[in-house]
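SAMPLE LOG
Freezer: B-3
Tube label: C17
Construct: single chain, 248 aa
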Amino acid sequence: MNLTLKIWRQKNANDKGKMVDYQISDVSPDMSFLEMLDVLNTQLIEKGEEPVAFDHDCREGICGSCSLYINGEAHGPDRLITTCQLHMRKFKDGDTIYIEPWRAKAFPVIKDLIVDRGAFDRIQHAGGFISVNTSGNTQDANAIPIEKASADAAFDAATCIGCGACVASCKNSSAMLFVSAKVSQFALLPQGQVEATDRVLNMVNQMDAEGFGNCTNTGACEVECPKGISLENIARMNREYLKASFKG
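STRUCTURE (predicted):
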């Protein structure tokens, strides 16, 4: 395939940035999207030009770092996949492909297609954990009975990889799907009950402090999420927050 790539180039967070056109040829439909960008960067380096900076790590749909906004969709035109799992067979010969970074105030651009998602880390540090007694008098987790429905729902929430597609696809740049998944995975389990009040209050307050917008139940976040995290988690987080507010 021969393609035209329109890629966002930006030197740093303070640079204005712009879309730059690139032509690439002989792209195999069996290539992954990131492999196609690797080929482009090889060609740019051979010509003495600056390669396009983009984030990636595992390339197995696990780490969430390969976050790109492709033709107006987070992670591109496929569903329930990350960018590294997107293959060029989803495009046609002669296509023009627009490639941009996540667009959110809380995700400042570092360079080109790479954004700083440290806001997610700070939200997680605010309460996305449980404190465990490691004094030698610990209880075996397998000895704690948990209803299957609760265990399944907690596991589904825990599949969130923190890629930020929910933020990128939301018209308000809301992080509520991410935060609600992190709250839900503990709210559904007995191990998470001890710190439940502080957890939801601290995580929601940190989310607001980072500058993310609010949820208006459009549902774009669930549609674009590569792990299919459900909006039900947002409803659960709202209930947990209301309950914690009364306790506080």
